[in-house]
Structures are given as structure tokens and as C-alpha cells.
Amino acid sequence: MTKASIILSFFVLLLNVGCSNAQQKLNKNNPYYSHTDNGKLRVTDAEWKKFLSEDSYHILREKGTESPNTGPYVHNPKKGMYYCAACGHALFNSDSKFDSGTGWPSFFRAYNKSSVIEEKDDTHGMARTEVLCARCGGHLGHVFDDGPNPTGLRYCMNGYALAFEASK
Ligand SMILES: [Zn+2]
To answer: Which residues surround ligand 1, an ion (CB under 5 A)?
Structure first.
């Protein structure tokens, strides 16, 4: 190995670690972010744009999809809760997280019955089920029926739609 290639591998390693451990940078001034207020939100996209990062806005408000293995939380091994990055609604517990090998954070069940809304999505020539935050209506990802026991479901989420808080 040349010196240059050693240095290069070091930076590639850093980059990978950076990706898998990426945390969401939340805007502390977001007035809609709450773990306790479950009231449904009606907020304009222009308003969300003020408080969401570019990546989060694209996914949550424009139904975007992050490229595999580029978003946060794919390999997050910590115990805790995953909240909506826009409104702070409780979406998934780490207990239901599993490694799907897809490059997106995956869960076999939502935190509770009022966490998410599921809607038919026939865009891009595929029959899929879209998963949205039940409080703010933000796009989170899709759910598929090829998940592990006990539910057989795979909630395939965009990391940039989530905000993780480790349990204390
Ligand atoms: Zn939300």
C-alpha cells in the first residue's frame, strides 16, 4: 500500500463512519416539534422550510427518498425512540429495529396505532404502501410485507425523516 492509498482509505473510513453515525441536526427553534402534543398539524410547506434541513424537507414534504446508506440511523445500535424529524411525534422504538440490508433504517412495527398513517401509493409504476407521520402528515417511507417475525412487516424509513433520542 502506498502512503497515498493509506491516507485515502483512512478518509473513506472516516466518511463511512460519518454516514452511519450521522445524527439529525434539529432546529431548536422549530415550534411544531413536541413529544407530548399529539394534535394534528396543518403547516404550510413554506413554513416547514424554515425549520427543516434540506434533506429532511425533501423527504418529509416532497416525498423524496435518500440514497441507500447515506442517511442517519441505518446502523444505529443504540436503544431509544425514533421521532418524526419535523414534529417530534413518536414513530418507532429501537426494539422493533432490524438490519434489513437495504441501507435504510428498518422496523417491523410502528411504536403504536397512532404513530403512522398508511396510504396506497401507485407512483413510479409500483404498488406500494406509503407511510406518513400521523401528526404532521410528513412522508417517512414505505411499508412492505417481507419483514421478519413477529409482524412480517418491513417499515423502510428514510433516516432524514427521523430524529433519534437514546433512552436514559
Ligand atoms: Zn411529524
So the answer is: 84, 86-87, 89, 133, 135-136, 138
